[in-house]
């Protein structure tokens, strides 16, 4: 649909191209759409499949918004790295530019890698999408630190390195808040708390006798199971789940036995407050 819209405009002499987000940062999947350019060079984004294309707006946080270009871009990792050293994703292409800040509030994220990866030349950062971490952007590493530029606010990111065909978690998760503040999510296993999980409209509706597994992201680079609970056979608006020994400042995820990979991670505050991302 995006390509069709672009080709149609170009046959009419209207400058147009495709913008896309490879992955939504707070949901599943990704999206492609068209951009036309006005006489003053202004961007006019739209999608040919919409009933009201002139009312285009972004409803959720993108991992990145990229514009497909004709020319190869010297700033892309594919311009200076061999393909085998780049994760198998859109970053292996070199004909795109970053236009995220034209669509969403952005900020830079300075990330410190684990000491074992301090000498890497390039690091990548991922968002959680469709039940797994998916590489969304890249940055060069200097003295164990990498700054990822123009990242969408309101998103949790996880740094990776890519070696021998493997994507390897290389640091703690980082939360870039809507206010553009950066918070490192390093699970504090010296301060544990009991987590009370209630039903939440549009996020979590319990099913009778279903098993719900709670995990937190650990410094070993994977989800660690904290416990499995069931709400029982009789579900009411007051039904809750309780999990003990939840580390403070942790990134967690609740996976039901009927999972379709659409669950979202959440942070847990010192008072047990949950925020979903």
Order of helices and strands: HEEEEEEEEEEEEEEEEEEEE
Mean pLDDT: 94
Q: Note the overall shape.
A: globular
Helix content estimate:
under 10%
End-to-end C-alpha gap: 29 Å
Count of domains: 3
- The stretches of 5 or more residues where confidence is low (pLDDT under 50) are none
β-strand percent reads 35-45%
Structural class: mainly beta
Task: Report the C-alpha radius of gyration, rounded.
Answer: 21 Å
Number of helices: 1
What is the β-strand count?
20
Descriptive account of the structure:
It is a single chain. The chain has 277 residues and is mainly β. It folds into three domains: 2-74 and 81-101, no CATH class; 104-184, Immunoglobulin-like (Sandwich), CATH 2.60.40; 188-276, Immunoglobulin-like (Sandwich). It has one helix and 20 strands. Strands 6, 7, 8, 9, 10, 11, 12 and 13 form an eight-stranded antiparallel β-sheet that branches. Strand 7 (122-129) and strand 8 (132-142) form a beta hairpin. The longest helix is centred in the N-terminal third of the chain and has 10 residues, at 2-11. The relative contact order is 0.12.
Summarize the structure.
With 277 residues, this protein is mainly beta. It has one helix spanning 2-11; strands spanning 16-21, 31-37, 43-46, 66-68, 96-98, 106-112, 122-129, 132-142, 145-152, 155-163, 166-169, 174-176, 182-184, 188-198, 212-218, 222-229, 240-248, 251-256, 266-268, 274-276. The protein starts with a helix and ends with a strand.
């Amino acid at each position: 649909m995006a390509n069709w819209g672009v080709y149609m405009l170009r046959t009419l002499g209207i400058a147009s191209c495709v913008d896309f987000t490879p992955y939504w940062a707070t949901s599943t999947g990704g999206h492609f759409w068209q951009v036309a350019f006005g006489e003053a060079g202004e961007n006019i984004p739209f999608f040919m499949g919409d009933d009201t294309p002139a009312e285009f707006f972004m409803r959720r946080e993108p991992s990145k918004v990229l514009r497909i270009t004709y020319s190869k871009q010297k700033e892309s990792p594919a311009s200076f790295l061999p393909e085998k050293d780049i994760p198998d994703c859109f970053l292996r292409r070199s004909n795109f530019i970053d236009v995220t800040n034209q669509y969403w509030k952005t900020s830079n994220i300075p990330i410190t890698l684990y000491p074992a990866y301090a000498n890497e030349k390039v690091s990548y950062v991922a968002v959680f999408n469709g039940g797994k971490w998916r590489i969304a952007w890249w940055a060069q590493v200097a003295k164990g630190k990498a700054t990822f530029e123009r990242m969408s606010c309101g998103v949790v990111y996880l740094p990776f390195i890519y070696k021998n065909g493997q994507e390897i978690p290389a640091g703690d998760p980082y939360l870039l808040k809507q206010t553009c503040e950066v918070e490192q999510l390093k699970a504090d296993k010296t301060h544990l708390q009991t987590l009370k999980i209630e039903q939440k409209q549009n996020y979590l509706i319990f099913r009778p006798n279903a098993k719900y597994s709670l995990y937190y992201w650990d410094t070993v680079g994977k989800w660690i199971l904290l416990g499995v609970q069931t709400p029982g056979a009789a579900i009411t608006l007051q039904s809750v789940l309780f999990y003990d020994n939840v580390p403070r400042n942790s990134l967690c995820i609740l996976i039901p036995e009927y999972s379709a990979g659409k669950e979202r991670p959440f942070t847990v505050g010192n008072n047990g407050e949950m925020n979903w991302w």
